[in-house]
Specification:
The structure holds two protein chains of two kinds. Chain A has a single domain, classed as Orthogonal Bundle (ABC transporter involved in vitamin B12 uptake, BtuC). Chain A contains 15 helices and four strands. In chain A, strand 2 and strand 3 form a beta hairpin. Chain A is globular, with a radius of gyration of 19 Å. In chain B, about 40% of the residues lie in helices and about 25% in strands. By secondary structure, chain B is α/β, with parallel strands linked by helices. Chain B has eleven helices and ten strands. In chain B, the strands form two sheets. Chain B has a six-stranded mixed sheet, with helices on both faces. In chain B, strands 2-1-4-5 form a four-stranded antiparallel sheet, covered by helices on one side. The radius of gyration of chain B is 18 Å and the shape is globular. The chains are: A mainly alpha, B alpha/beta. The interface between A and B is medium-sized, with 20 and 30 residues.
Chain lengths: ~325, ~260
Amino acid sequence: MNTPKFTLVLAAVAAALFIAFRLIGNDYLFFAGYTVLQYIVIATAWNILGGYCGYVNFGSAGFFAVGVYSTVFFYNVGQQYDVPLPIPLLMVIGGIMSGLLGLGMGYLTLRLRGVFFAIATLALLVVIETFVVNWSFVGGSRGAYIIPPSEIPVLGVFIHYLFLLMLGLVVLSLVAARTIERSSLGIGFATIRDDELAAEASGVPTLRLKLIATVVSGALFGMAGAPFPYYIGYVEPGSAFNLAYSVNAIAMPMIGGTMSWVGPMVGALLLSTLQQVITVTISSAANLLITGLLLIGFVILAPKGLVGLWQSFTAKGKRS
Amino acid sequence: MSQIMGQSVPEEAIGDVPLLAVEQLGKRFGGFVALDTVDLAVPKGQRLGLIGPNGSGKSTLVNCISGTLQNETGSVTFGGQRLDGAPAHRRARLGLARSFQLPRPFRTMTVAENIRVPLIYTVGARAGVHLTSSELEDRCMEVLTLVSLQDKAGKNPFDLTQVEMRKLELARAMAAEPKLLIADESMAGLSHSEVEDIVALLIRMNERGVTIIMIEHIMRAVMAFSQRLVVLVSGRKIADGAPEDVIKDKDVVGAYLGT
């Protein structure tokens, strides 16, 4: 399937989902669904650097939070001059901010490999959080309130609008991931994952490609984070820099499978839905515990994730 | 890419200038002198053998020429162009290819995809070249046929035998359509007939106009292949000349047998 066709199919599926949710008419579905969609974007964003290039980013929450606080910042600026900025624009701005952060992080850390790179990204997360905690314009450690408009033209309920925006972002990020995967850029990314020295010797400009990966990945994180203040209404560093984002960003692609765009989507759909169910039925604290256990289980038993399991299952079926 | 175009010298203009000129090259690792003012000029079309005991700096020299490591003193000139500080991928695009001592295939890709990488990123990145996907396919099979791996195109590199893995390593270097190929110990651990196989392959490539530097311990292969032999010992070049003369050289015999 070529890219325009794939985009159309994906958009049709998204539209069908939205219409189905509207017909059911329960706003809780939209609230829970928003989180699931947000995690699809986060998992896909992580996978572009972590799965395709093999660079494990532990600071996903930092990139997400830069998107969140970019919205808080521009919301506050908008309040001062009485020009409220539309959320789609704030998403673009958040994407640019986190993309720039990705570029900066790339220049500083991409000469590190493996665990050293992971530690550097974790350090970056701490640095950004410290910065935000001490910046009173965006609320500092007190936090900041964002007041969402109560009524939205056409759609009516505000959460429907947010859900629709996130749905659009899911389509965008999945199309981006799939396009990258099938292009020569994706082949270049895979050579970096497999063997960087051999990649350079084969003419692959590894540093430039890694920078592209950090920028695209960072931008998607930022765009996922930008509408979050509107979703939650009150942002403080503890929620924006929540470790759950970093852990889930790694766990979801790992559980789904890191080799293709399908893996992070499947992983995020399953794990995030499961988390929503657990939050309601058991407790929100059990969330990360379950995630951690699943992650350990998959890393040991099925390192290629659910997609890998499915592939080996279908391959066996063909053989017999 | 425009940079490469702007700097490149047409082949006719090179004339007597050697394809590769290494001048006063030096490289240290901490206090250890790996290379000590090495000079080496390789004319176009030559088959050069490079030998030396373990730890004599052969691989370091290859790494400095191909850009995997950067030399600290001296210079590397390729096709009339100074390479100081140029990253490995730019050197590859200029026509400088290498194979690794231990094969380093892209492990999550098939054999054919391994070959496609240099076709896309080296050949395809050169000025004025655009490969369509069917051309890419043809060239890929052509290269694989040259090393008789055409039946393994869809296989994973780890399903290959040792000798096939070595051939894949060479094929990937050849796919970049290099002017100069450096084969770093591509025969270590191979059987008698397999060594002959690889030597024949390298000579075939040389006949297609590729200048080749072969690093090897297996003297039979070195003598069969080389038109000229260079000996490195402790980071210094101690002999350079016709293979028959070099192996009789007092210093060379001394370095190997420890007289």
